[in-house]
Amino acid sequence: MDMDIKPIIPARNGLSSSKDALVNGTIKMEPGLEPTLEELERELPDVPDDQIQLGDLLSRVVQSIYAELSELSETMPNMSDTARKRVLADWVVKMKKQVVKLYAVAKWSRDADTIQKCMNITAFLLTQSQQFEDVVGALRVAKDSLDPARLRNHDLLTSLDVLTTGSYLRLPSCIKKLTIPETPLTDTEVDKTFLDIEETIRFRLRMSEIIPIEMSEFRIGNGRAHFTVLDLFKTSLCLLGGAKDDGWFMVDVEFLINVGGDLTGLQEFPRKPPNIMKQHITDEANARLAFYLTLPDAPPLPPEAPPRPQLSEGVIDTPLIRIFNFLQMMSLSYQLEILCYQAQRMRSLGWANFLSVEMSPDRKTLKATYWLRPPVPQLPGRPKFKIPLNGGTLTISIVEKRSPIRDSKEPDRTPRQRVLSRIQQRAKLGDSKPSDEVEGLQFAVRWEAASGAFGVFVNPEEVTLPQGALQVNANNLDFESMLRMVIQRHAQAILRSFKNQLQHTSNKTFSPAGAVSLIIDEKTHALRVHLCGDEVVIITLDTRTGKLNMRDTGDLAAAGRAPRLAVYSDKINENPTWLMEALIRLRLTTITDFAEQKASYLGLRSYRRRNIPPNEAMKLGPDARSTLFIQLANFPDHYLVIVITDENFKYALITTKAIEDNTYAMMVLEDIAWLDFDRIREADPDETSKDTPRSMRKTLDGRTESGNTGFDLDNRGLREIYNYCCARVAFINVERQFKLRKINFTHVNPSNPIPSVELAHIQSSLARSVPALCVKSEDILSGAPAAEAAMPNIRVIPLNWWSHEKARVVTCVKLKYVQQPMGKRGMGGAVIRPSKRIVYDTREAIVSFLSEDVNSCVDEFLEEWARVSKMVVIAREVAQMSKLHQWHDVRLLSFDLQTVEFAYAQDYTVSISCEDQLSSTGGNFDLYFSRMESGDAMETDISFNSLNPHEEAEPFLRHILRHGHGKLSQSLHRLVKLLRETLPIVVELEEIRRDGNENGRNLDIFAKSAGWYRLLYGDLKHALDFRLMNDQRISVLDASHSLFGSRNLDPNAMRIDADIDNLVLQPIPQVKEIVAAAVKDALSAGILSSGKTAAMEVGIISDAVGIRALTKVIHAQVLERLKPQT
């Protein structure tokens, strides 16, 4: 049926319309009173879920674009042009995507109102549906609550009594019992009752009741019979009455058990059952006791109920046997449940993935399977192996054990118990038979180890426990201890099988005695496998997980080896038959680690493998199992290769060459030289002088062997063979340089030590067996400056090829004549070291040039020789200047082959050094200016100013020597002359600078060339130029005027825009008057002599004396003229 469901809109002004009509459940209104569409939409709920304003989205996108653009504007200027283009292109693409998405969203937003209205209608319909469901639920609850609210049945008998007699004829017995209490028994009556019932119990037990032999231990007291069955239960029974046919009932019971192991949850297993459980046990026990008992007060059974059991003829009821069988089963089941609980708790404490616990449906068998492992997926191409998915099972079950006598239904008893049972039965029953038989229940514990676990087959005797070792102890119920006993025995058997397998295979790697040993104690079950040297791997079998784990205890035990051992452990656990292969690989890896560790201790760079094609690697021999490439630090293309075979180390020196146009940078072996390790070690006098002969040393295998076989490698041995390789390559490189320059060389006896005492300590024991090189000075110094100063023979000796430092070469030159070093750096004793690369022995006149790069040692020597020779020339020329030019204050202060320091005037000094003398530009000279403190100044308290004003012009002054390359003596004379002539200028300017700093004037004094200095005033528009002219004349000019005339220039071209005019120097106001007044005052005072000073319109020209007198006066007047402008 279609129904038109619309919201009911209340009438206007809160009044319902009388004209409304209800038709088919729908309110029909007059046309004028129907709600409008806007009113209906207002009734809909507003659902703003997942809706945002388009304006907010647009604002966020624009702000994000602006922020990223601002960030790019700050970071892109520091990028290269290519990086800027790439970043900008990526940003444009990214922003374009964002704008396109925003455009699509803007298109979709046209339908936002329609979508919003649909969501509101959907929410309204969902609310209406929920209301209908709530009404249905409320009606259902009302129905369910009204059913019990019915009147109780009428009491028809009482109603008939009241109708016939007018009153009640009877009252309920419960009212009588509540109102009339029974008379309690006295203590005497209670004691008498107890004595009577105890006598009856004693009589019944001795004369007629069949008592199971297992329950024969009892006592009678407190009106009950207390029975105790060892390790099972303790119970008390009482009779219903004193008659012969009265039955028994149970009073209480206690199970004789003690929970061991983890006592968590002990409260869950009380010895005495709590109230509810006790009531259930009591009801069941009483039912079994009264199984054949006739109950006179029992209600009649319904017709469909089966009749009560009846005893057959000649059968006597034996209730005590039934109660024993029941409580025995209850006790054993209780113990089995406790063991199951303990097993389940072990699973929750970390055993869940490795232990499964199952209980049979009849709750009589507990089965625990340990060392569970997931099935390994068999990949195509991999060998298949079948290994059990568990380690074994431990089964605990409740079984009935009969007597071993054939056709006997009695339980398993001792002969004495069987005799007593038969006597009791014959005495109390005669020829009759008992209604029940005793059930001999007990625990049966069975351990079954999985055959082929871990891929090894163990001896059956090793997975068998002694008789009685594995049983359930009621006084200490501990499933964990039972399981651990089984697992430990199984783990020992498996590890022992692994040990036999490692020692008795075709591979004799682990066959020696002591190579594999078994470690067994209370907490550990492991195999100790000796790999090499002090390296031992421990293989443990985790008793919880059943997994093999490998760990090491040697010197290399570090965090880096743990992941590797973990990988080996995982592979072994996947396929335990791979253990032998894993240990062989681990041994090989350990030996490689040992060699790599030695190289690392010595600071050598080593590689396990290089990009060498397989056919090239075969050149190292077919017996190579692994290799270690040790790169020579100073010779990257050469390697010392340690080849690891099954029995020993082999050593080779290889030369590699990269294959051109190869994507993977493959290398080929250009040369292979096999090294005799024994011969190299015998060349070491320290090694051969040891007391212990090498033939009896302990090898890396941990065994004492004769001869130098095995993996005998210590730090010293590796260092010696590495040094030998470095020496071999170093000499080859030096000789190659001589051959390229066609310089003849010869080998000399290496027995003589290094000539320089300073370098004598950096020697190797192998240096005596490595020859040195000797060249002629006329060959190697051909074309070099001051070549005649060297003796004929020059000795070249490579150094540091025996150490971790970079290999170097020392070139020793004996000098014929030279200016003796002097000064504080040249008077260090018999041996001086002016620089890191030069050592000079003053007694032997031997200069040792130390080169840092073997491949360029000849070039470095020639460069150092050029530097030293130039310093020698400068020192010689300075020493002769005082006599040659009558410059008496020019004197040599210090000379150490690298630096020459001398005083060029008064106490003003300069220090000269040079570098890059073999470059095409002629090399560079470094000048350092300072002042020398006199002895008189040191005795006063006045502070000494060591600043030399010539330091400002050092970049210009150095070019005088540089441009004089080839004519160094002339350039040096020119430099000294220029320094002496410009000294008055710089001294006066330095005093002006100092005075300006003290008075807070902003003055800038700087050099524009070697003989041109400028004094720039604080307004940066006016300046004075001080220039050195010919014949020791000095000019002081207004810097705004050029020395070159401008009379021929076009006047129109001299017009300068007013804006540009502010950017150039301006003429000093009244400079002509200032100069004229200064000269006039100096002449009148007698400071100047006529004819040596000339005043001009823009300055003055004078000698050094005139400049000293006029500079300060002109400077002061210029400051006065510039004050109004500043």
* Beta-strand content estimate: 15-25%
For the residues shown, what is the average pLDDT?
A: 80
Shape: elongated
Distance N terminus to C terminus? 106 Å
Indicate the structural class: alpha+beta
Question: How would a crystallographer describe the biggest sheet?
Answer: 7 strands, antiparallel
| Stretches with pLDDT under 50, minimum 5 residues | 1-25, 687-709, 755-762
Strand element count: 38
Helix content: 25-40%
Strand order of the largest sheet: 22-23-24-25-28-27-26
Q: Work out the radius of gyration.
A: 58 Å
- Output the number of helix runs: 25
Main location: nucleus
Pfam families: Med14 (PF08638)
Subcellular location: Nucleus
Family: Belongs to the Mediator complex subunit 14 family.
Descriptive notes:
By secondary structure, this protein is an alpha+beta fold. The protein contains 25 helices and 38 strands. A 7-stranded antiparallel β-sheet has the order 22-23-24-25-28-27-26. The longest helix is centred in the N-terminal third of the chain and has 35 residues, at 112-146.
Give a quick set of tags describing it.
alpha+beta; 1126 residues; disordered N terminus; single chain; seven-stranded antiparallel beta sheet; 38 strands; 25 helices
Can you lay out the helices and strands and say which pair or pack?
Layout: E1 21-23, E2 26-28, H1 37-43, H2 54-75, H3 81-108, H4 112-146, H5 156-165, H6 173-179, H7 187-207, E3 218-221, E4 224-229, E5 233-239, E6 248-255, H8 275-289, E7 315-316, H9 319-351, E8 355-359, E9 365-370, E10 392-400, H10 415-429, E11 433-434, E12 441-449, H11 479-503, E13 516-520, E14 525-532, E15 535-541, E16 548-552, H12 561-574, H13 579-601, E17 605-607, H14 614-617, E18 626-632, E19 635-644, E20 649-658, E21 667-674, H15 677-682, H16 685-688, H17 715-740, E22 745-748, E23 772-776, H18 777-780, E24 790-799, E25 808-815, E26 831-835, E27 838-841, E28 846-851, H19 857-884, E29 891-895, E30 900-905, E31 908-915, E32 924-931, H20 935-939, H21 954-962, H22 968-999, E33 1004-1009, E34 1012-1016, E35 1023-1028, E36 1034-1038, H23 1058-1061, H24 1071-1085, E37 1094-1095, E38 1099-1102, H25 1104-1122
Parallel strand pairs: 7-11
Antiparallel strand pairs: 1-2, 3-4, 4-5, 5-6, 8-9, 9-10, 10-12, 13-14, 14-15, 15-16, 17-18, 18-19, 19-20, 20-21, 22-23, 23-24, 24-25, 25-28, 26-27, 27-28, 29-30, 30-31, 31-32, 33-34, 34-35, 35-36, 36-38, 37-38
